[in-house]
Amino acid sequence: MMWRTLLLCQSSGFQKWVDYSDKYGLGYQLCDNSIGVVFNDNTKMVLDAAGEQVQYLGRENDEHYYTVKLYPEKLQKKITLLQYFKNYMSEHLQKAGADMPIREGDELARLPVLRIWFRTQSAIVLHLTNGTLQLNFFEDHTKLVICPLMGAATYIDSERNFRVLKLAALVKYGCPKALLDRLRYAKMMVERLMSAHSARPFSSVLTSVARHPSNIAGNY
């Protein structure tokens, strides 16, 4: 089993994840304390922060809602695995970042779900259904979270120092080369993840950052 702890970067960032895809799938915990699993059969399951409501997505992304006490018998194994991932991350992985408070009505909200994840030689890439993209780079353990809704990027360096930066400001003022290189890599991942139509608003900002002449070390 391979695991990594991810720093909290955005309101929907990943706190923890555990890769058990050699048998079952990938489990994760978001900063709102919801727990999710992407199973090897490409179905998905999410447990809310209160540990009561279950959201299940089938292979065709058809959505179903249950509770931990009331669900179809055919989901018994997946509910058990969901609880296993939850317990494992709670007992063995260090939490990074602050918890998001549970607000009234959150139990009725649709939770963000890990849409897709994959590994490259350089990073693990995690993309949520709300658009948030997180990359964890293997070589130096730096991390990048990009939130298109906020128009912002969070960068965590190898010393675990982090800063939140507006993408528009990066276009205008530039950024250090280390961050620029990761933004360029993120742009390639966005192009890989999304269709040309849905990716255009997201990718175009990253393109501006990557190509702007002021984006060199020392201008930040």
From TrEMBL:
Organism domain of life: Eukaryota
Catalytic activity: L-threonyl-[protein] + ATP = O-phospho-L-threonyl-[protein] + ADP + H(+); L-seryl-[protein] + ATP = O-phospho-L-seryl-[protein] + ADP + H(+)
Keyword Oxidoreductase listed: no
This protein's record includes keyword Disulfide bond: no
EC number: 2.7.11.21
Swiss-Prot/TrEMBL keywords: ATP-binding, Cytoplasm, Kinase, Nucleotide-binding, Repeat, Serine/threonine-protein kinase, Transferase
Entry GO terms, CC: centrosome; cytoplasm; kinetochore; nucleus; spindle pole
POLO box domain mapped to chain residues: 13-91, 113-195
GO biological process, alphabetically ordered: mitotic spindle organization
Enzyme class, broadest EC rank: transferase
GO molecular function per UniProt: ATP binding; protein serine/threonine kinase activity
Cell compartments where the protein resides: Cytoplasm
Chief place of localization: cytoplasm
Name of the protein this chain belongs to: polo kinase
